[in-house]
């Protein structure tokens, strides 16, 4: 009896400890953000409005939808906008408790801030002095991983990718009577293991905005074979685990996919093609802006709003009626981008979502106007800073190293991690945009190509920019992912040296950038190629490692160049053993040698800010 009593006491203590640990976990936010850019005083009108708002959110937290948004106040920046979102499988009571806790915590953790976001496993709460409703927000990314690895990552990753793609599509639609944009899915990984996944958006988003947000989240989920992972954004979130982390009984299974009857063999390919075309048309039409809206946003394409000029036209800054800043790319009538190229860029970018890729917001195609609408990236393009004697000092080594890594991750996403496999074909410094934090975003997908399982393809129409094209592409029209790797290598060496590849063409006797770098590498003086503006503020190991990577990328034999997955790994680890680089391809010595005979091409001067007459872009003028 005494032994049984002792066992009972022991079990109670253990259970109590488990309860305390569990309570501590669920009351700790996964993330909270409160920018210091805006604040309010304790006696301000905004403070009063915020209290009213938070009270309203808390009192409405038991709604079956698990979502509610509201405002408090009437004028200007004193209006408080707020919302909460609870996980779709929760009961109203659990949602109420989480929101009440969030209201208390957000004021304690973000005192006197006009903008704040806090999220837990069960709910998210946010407020702002600007409207946040029905607007996709991917400005803040929180990524969490289970540190255990699956047994067979090569087999696991395709399964995970397909599963996340499916639930993103399902969640983007209102899939139950309460209007939740929420979906879960289970998939068998082995006889003993299953993958459980979840995707959710705030229900005020449109179907397209929700899908775009979820695709952005998936693009930032670099699982690398982890047993679990999640990405949390202000407007949506995704998660997967190897155990059931949601209430399975409370989640209705998604509707089964429609059964497609196989058409006769003779019509199989045409039917598939028609379905794909219909999907693309639907995607394109959902992004369309009226020309009057674009004219109003840019003050009728005012020269004061012009921010860049390239081979395909002019880029303007614009402001939409809701206050959102945009970049408007107005294609010139004489540009090489025709109807097919225009459609190509829309469909491609609409399906690509990654923090290091520029985001397409929409397009306009009226009369002779062909216009693309992008997110506005305030710090222009990389060449604007890199090759200006005064501005290049703003790019210290730490910023350049960060830019190199971001470009590499964006290119890896295009080659391997996106829903599509894409070769950019025109990677150069003027196509790298920089956001407010100087994070790089790859842009300009008008020349991009979808790529299947083949290792390479051959074209007789060469597109791209001289000096960045791989030798096998420029000479023989053969392109592959290794063509982009070559361009990345040239760009990396430009970033380190602060020297433009084409600047070596100023005289016939001048050597090109690649031979310049190779000479110093061979002579054991690689640091001599560094931009002198670094001074003493740089990491010697990082610089030498980046030069090494750059030379590996520009080797003449495409098979010897690393993949972007290897490049990202080499950039993130000093312990990776790298092979010795071979001498790079030297075929840029004279402009007359750049375009091999027998290959069709058209040339147009490619300009960006600052305007340069040294870039020669080769663009195709006929539909692909």
Which properties best describe this structure?
4 domains; 15 helices; Phosphorylase Kinase, domain 1; Killer Toxin P4, Chain A; 19% strand; 24 strands; 5-stranded antiparallel sheet; disordered C terminus; globular; 624 residues; alpha+beta
Task: Please give a structural write-up.
The structure is a single chain. With 624 residues, the chain is of the alpha+beta class. The chain has four domains: 28-128, Killer Toxin P4, Chain A (2-Layer Sandwich); 142-250, Gnk2 domain, C-X8-C-X2-C motif (Killer Toxin P4, Chain A), CATH 3.30.430; 283-375, 2-Layer Sandwich (Phosphorylase Kinase, domain 1), CATH 3.30.200; 382-618, Transferase(Phosphotransferase) domain 1 (Transferase(Phosphotransferase), domain 1, Orthogonal Bundle), CATH 1.10.510.10. Helices cover 33% and strands 19% of the residues. It contains 15 helices and 24 strands. It has helices at residues 2-26, 45-59, 92-109, 153-171, 207-219, 268-285, 291-297, 339-350, 382-386, 397-417, 471-476, 481-497, 513-522, 540-553, 564-572, and strands at residues 31-33, 67-72, 80-86, 116-119, 123-128, 142-149, 181-188, 194-201, 226-232, 236-241, 306-310, 313-319, 325-331, 360-366, 369-375, 422-423, 432-434, 440-442, 449-450, 457-458, 464-465, 478-479, 603-605, 616-618. The chain has a five-stranded antiparallel sheet. A hairpin with a 5-residue loop joins strand 12 (313-319) and strand 13. The termini are far apart.
């Amino acid at each position: 009896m005494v032994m049984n009593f002792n066992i009972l006491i022991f079990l109670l203590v253990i259970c109590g400890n488990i309860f305390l640990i569990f309570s501590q976990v669920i009351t700790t936010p996964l993330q909270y953000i409160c920018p210091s850019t805006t604040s309010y005083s304790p006696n301000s009108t905004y403070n009063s409005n915020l209290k009213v708002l938070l009270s309203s959110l808390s009192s409405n937290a038991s709604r079956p939808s698990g979502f509610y948004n509201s405002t408090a106040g009437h004028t200007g920046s004193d209006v408080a906008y707020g919302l909460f979102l609870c996980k779709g499988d929760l009961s109203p009571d659990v949602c109420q408790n989480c929101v009440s806790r969030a209201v208390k915590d957000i004021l304690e953790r973000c005192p006197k801030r006009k903008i704040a976001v806090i999220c837990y496993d069960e709910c998210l709460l946010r407020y702002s002095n600007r409207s946040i409703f029905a607007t996709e927000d991917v400005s803040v990314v929180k990524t969490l991983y289970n540190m255990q690895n699956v047994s067979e990552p090569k087999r696991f990753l395709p399964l995970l990718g397909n599963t996340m793609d499916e639930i993103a599509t399902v969640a983007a639609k209102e899939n139950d009577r309460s209007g939740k944009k929420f979906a879960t899915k289970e998939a068998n990984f082995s006889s003993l293991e299953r993958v459980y996944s979840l995707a959710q958006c705030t229900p005020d988003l449109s179907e397209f905005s929700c899908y775009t947000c979820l695709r952005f989240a998936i693009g930032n989920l670099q699982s690398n074979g982890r047993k679990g992972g999640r990405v949390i954004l202000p407007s949506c979130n995704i998660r997967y685990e190897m155990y059931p982390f949601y209430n399975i009984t409370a989640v209705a299974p998604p509707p089964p996919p429609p059964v497609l009857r196989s058409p006769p063999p003779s019509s199989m390919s045409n039917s598939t093609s028609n379905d794909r075309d219909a999907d693309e048309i639907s995607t394109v039409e959902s992004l369309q802006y009226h020309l009057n809206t674009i004219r109003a946003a840019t003050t009728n394409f005012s020269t004061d709003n012009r921010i860049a000029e390239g081979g395909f036209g002019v880029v303007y800054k614009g402001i939409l009626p809701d206050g959102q800043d945009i970049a408007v790319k107005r294609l010139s009538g004489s540009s090489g981008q025709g109807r097919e190229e225009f459609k190509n860029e829309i469909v491609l970018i609409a399906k690509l979502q990654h923090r290091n890729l520029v985001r397409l917001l929409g397009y306009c195609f009226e009369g002779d106007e062909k216009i693309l609408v992008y997110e506005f990236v305030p710090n222009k393009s990389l060449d604007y800073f890199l090759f200006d004697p005064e501005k290049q000092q703003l790019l210290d080594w730490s910023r350049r190293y960060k830019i190199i890594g971001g470009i590499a991750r964006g290119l890896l996403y295009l080659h391997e991690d996106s829903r599509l496999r894409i070769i950019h074909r025109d990677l150069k410094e003027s196509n790298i945009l920089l956001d407010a934090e100087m994070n790089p975003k790859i842009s300009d997908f008008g020349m991009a190509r979808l790529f299947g399982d083949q290792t390479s393809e051959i074209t007789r129409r060469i597109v791209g920019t001289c000096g960045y094209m791989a030798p096998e592409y420029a000479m023989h029209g053969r392109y592959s992912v290794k063509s982009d790797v070559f361009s990345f290598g040239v760009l990396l060496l430009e970033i380190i040296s602060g020297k433009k590849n084409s600047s070596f063409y100023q005289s016939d006797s001048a050597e090109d950038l690649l031979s310049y770098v190779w000479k110093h590498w061979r002579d054991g003086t690689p640091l001599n190629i560094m931009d002198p503006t670094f001074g003493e503020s740089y990491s010697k190991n990082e610089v030498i490692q980046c030069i090494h990577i750059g030379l590996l990328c520009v080797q003449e034999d495409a098979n010897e160049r690393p993949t972007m997955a290897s490049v990202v790994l080499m950039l993130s680890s000093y312990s990776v053993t790298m092979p010795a680089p071979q001498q790079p391809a030297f075929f840029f010595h004279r402009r007359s040698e750049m375009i091999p005979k027998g290959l069709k091409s058209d040339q147009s001067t490619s300009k960006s800010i600052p305007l340069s007459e040294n870039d020669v872009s080769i663009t195709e003028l006929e539909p692909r």
